[in-house]
Hints:
- The protein is α/β, with parallel strands linked by helices and 456 residues long.
- Helices cover 25% and strands 23% of the residues.
- It contains 13 helices and 19 strands.
- The strands form 4 sheets. It has an 8-stranded mixed sheet with strand order 4-3-2-1-10-11-9-8, with helices on both faces.
- α6 crosses α7.
Amino acid sequence: MNVDRMLGFLAIAISAATPVAAEPLARYNASLNESSISGISSGGYMAVQFATAWSSVIKGVGIVAGGPFWCVRADASDFITGYLGPIWRATGSCMKGTSDLKSADFAAKADAKAASRDIDPLDNLKRQRIYLFHGDNDALIAKAVTDATAEFYRHYLDDTNRGNLFYQTAIDSGHALVVSDDAQTGDLNACNANDSPYIERCGYDQAGVILQHIYGALNPPNRGQLKGALKQFDQSPYTRPRAPDALSLGEAGHVFVPDDCARGEACRVHIALHGCKQDVSKVGRRFVEKAGYNAWADTNSIIVLYPQARSSWYRPYNPQGCWDWWGYVDYTDNYVTKSGAQIAAIKAMLDSVTGGAGVPSDISGGASSTLEVIDRSDTAAALAWKPLAGATIYRISRAGADGQFVLAGETKGLGFADSGLAPRTTYSWRISAVVNGVEGSPFANVTATTRPTPAP
């Protein structure tokens, strides 16, 4: 018996001897096809991998300081020769953005994995809603890395779907998930810290932007006492036949369940993935309580699933509790596929909480709608709205200083990222809907000014 298998059996024995005081996940009236995912740092890389592998069921993805699919280019030859190649590339090109970071390589790998049916068909990426973020003062991940992520997605988005990608690069944050300034976030880092717990108060509600870019305009968040409940759950049923420690996962994860979801009303599920050195063993419950998702989820029928990775003596190549974006679990390139150990575990968790067929009332379509600007960068604006009953296509028009509206784009979704704008410039937008093949009159008008370009 080889050493790796012996350690695996020992990990299972230790896990069985120290049970977690938590129950498995419950099932709710949540539609699998309304699911979404986001993550920061290693969680951002994993969010890309999961959303690409399971693109048939993932509606949208939020990526904070995360790189492209298969960034470290780990292949069979790497694992035969001692595994140092993926580690060098993970800490080199995939963090520093060196010249060997080539988007064509990542798309070619995704194409090959889709052709072999190890991941879902990549045509699904055209309909996904994608939010991408790089803090202007991020000291850990270079902008060239998130640029490569943007290029990976643009490879699959045709011109019709270009408005699905919003890329925010004009916030002066460090390497962190970014939250608004309020009493609940007072113990978190100030903006620009680049330090634990890697959540920063920058006056920017990132969780809200992510969720609205994916799902359309939402009800305002609950800034007071939440009605829903944050629960701990046992992760071991979703890693079997191996123990969580063998996958470098924690024994327990967390899930936030709004009160209406607990009562059986129709809901959606969002998966929020922490970054390296951000699991509960390192930062306590700061990520699961203060990342900003729960306040929005509480008023919008969204269950938030918080799986937990962690450092493990059994996985020495993961000392910081990162998600597996360089193949450290099984030393094969399956870590980016449906059969990847951590991807399969997260999918099992998602399957466990979903199973309903209904959709929340706020996405079933009403008699009227409104248009909101949910975010602005220096060169783009993210728009979102609530659904209009019977609408099949939404057309967005934009006007500059001359006041003349021109078509900016169209979409079947409930949001649009208007790009190619000028910094520090005021624009207006309005929207019209196509119902039964007929385009109605514009029904909303909003105005916003783009941010200044960050200083070099």
